Every structure is written in C-alpha cells, then in structure tokens.
C-alpha cells in the first residue's frame, strides 16, 4: 500500500493513500501558491531594476557635474 518506505535502516512515513480528487485539489492549491510567489518575486525584481537604473542615472549625472568642474577650471577650496 506504500504507506512507509524503507531505505537501509531509515524508515520514512509516506502517508495513507488519498483519492484522486484530493490529490488534484492539493496540486491546484500548490500551483496557485507558486504562481503567487512568482508574481511577488517578479514585482520585487521590477522594483529593484528601477532602483538600480535610478542610481545609475544619478551616478552618471554626478560624475558629469564633477568632471565638468575640472574641465572648466573651477575647483572647490577646502
């Protein structure tokens, strides 16, 4: 009946047989949970991509301003 499995000295509980309807319902629930997880991770990834692109733009902008000061011959006195 495949209730338990034995592998050398290890015995594992597999469980009682379930009906096909219960197993199908369980797989559907698992599918929905995984789709939700994928959706959340996709949203997080999109947010991170936006943040990285904004930071990259700011770094380029600051670098251009900083290098522009050297090109024009004006410096900050400390």
TrEMBL record:
One of its GO terms (biological process) is regulation of cell cycle. GO terms for cellular component: nucleus; transcription regulator complex. It comes from the Eukaryota. InterPro entries: Transcrpt_fac_DP. GO terms for molecular function: DNA-binding transcription factor activity, RNA polymerase II-specific; RNA polymerase II transcription regulatory region sequence-specific DNA binding. This is Uncharacterized protein. It comes from Panagrolaimus superbus.
